[in-house]
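Continuing the batch. This is chain 6 of the set; chains 1 through 5 are on the previous pages. Same settings as before, nothing changed between runs. Recording input and output for traceability.
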Amino acid sequence: MAEIKIAKVEQGQTKIRSVPVAVTPEGFWCCPSPVAFQKTLKSHHSLTKHNKQSPPPQPQLPKPEKKPSSTTIRSVIASDEIHQNSANSDTVHSIAVPATVQERPPRQKVETLPRKVAIEFGEPGSSDAKVILVGKQGFCVKLSVHKKVLVDHSSFFAKKLAEKDSVFACLEIESCEDAEIYVETIGLMYCKDMKQRLMKQNVSRVLRVLKVAELLGFSSCIQPCLDYLEAVPWVGEEEEEKVISSILRLKTEGVGVTPVLKRVACNAVDPPKETLSRIIELVLRSKEEKSRREMKSIVLKLLREQNGANVADNFNETIYSSCQNCLDSVLSLFRQACEGEKPETDTKQIAVEADNLTWLLDVLVERQAAEEFSVTWGNQKELALLHEKLPLMSRYHISRVTSRLFIGIGRGELLPSKDTRLLLLTTWLQPLFNDYNWLQHGCRSFDGKLVEEGIGRTILTLPLEDQQSILLSWLGSFLNGGDGCPNLQRAFEVWWRRSFIRPYSDRQANGSCHTDSTSKE
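Output for chain 6:
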């Protein structure tokens, strides 16, 4: 808060803008519209730039003003002039025009725009103090106010006015950054229902009022502002951040900021792990396909954003528990399908559970915790055996889980051990070959190129003997199945070069011979 001091206003230097003022029965001044106030500020800025760029205009004699035809306005002007001469000969007040009388002011040129605005609060001619707000650009707002109102509502003004002995006090606030909001906030001191007044404002403006109210020690205004912010919706993350940062900066004691902050933080009864577990369970057990698919996408995105925030570190246990439940359900459905019980119902449920497993695997991959899942999937011997007995339409969804694992290994998203990689290929590669043709033509989300690349890279991570065994088995399937089998030719070429063109043993031998010949020389 800038220093407040007594200011002497020299007669004849103040240019006053007559602002229409409406006075309510209880004496409350209705603030001029923010648009009109901002236009005055903009006009002053443009005037300042104009004066810097061009020489000052030649002085002209003022044109004689036309007398107003309304006797009401003339009587108001006369009474206002009498009050000015009797109360303060050095101060000029604005005309307080009743709300019922409206006269359109003449349009002013840029050169004649005012540098000062005068506003009067309460009943016309009853003020006993002035507050002058001086902006950084020299713009000035002069407020005719009442000491009792300032003292009753503002601890800041009460302290400053207590230091003044004069009957008519004049306080000046220099370098005022937000003169418009100062005017609005002081006007709220005359308002009996601040909540009703604030309802007409937006969040950004109320935050500005809250800041000024705290600087002025206007505690009876701070709480209505907080009540407004607690009830009104916040639009967008940027506005939410502004509200929270403004609330956290409040230093006034005894104000209730907790209701506002509860919107973004709470002392939850359930720990995050239990809440996340409930969300996962609700998503997995949804009966509506579209809603389930949309919520899976949203939850995965939110978990990806929180991955580096160490939120619920033990959340992986919940995911693995859900994975085990899905696996048990799939195994039970496969057994029922093999026995011929409710084949259509089993097929639909198998598709749902396989999709759930794929989504849970995506979550684990994002959290870099999918290695244990690869071990569990590789050990599903019974499920792989039952897979061969089921019709293609009932079983192919399971191969999507296998495909996702190979893609993850090929990308380096999960790093299972050598034994686990070999176990996955031994258990699930042939079932994937059997379903591959249908996956390519009957599954929209299946990316054959990506799966083939993942399988090939996974094979090439194994020892050379295992590469040979798996790729020779693939070669037989590919030569018989053609496009119905994954195309692993690139992996086959790499294995061929490693084995026949320049084996590592030959390179090692050449290197040792070169070393021996060098030593002999």
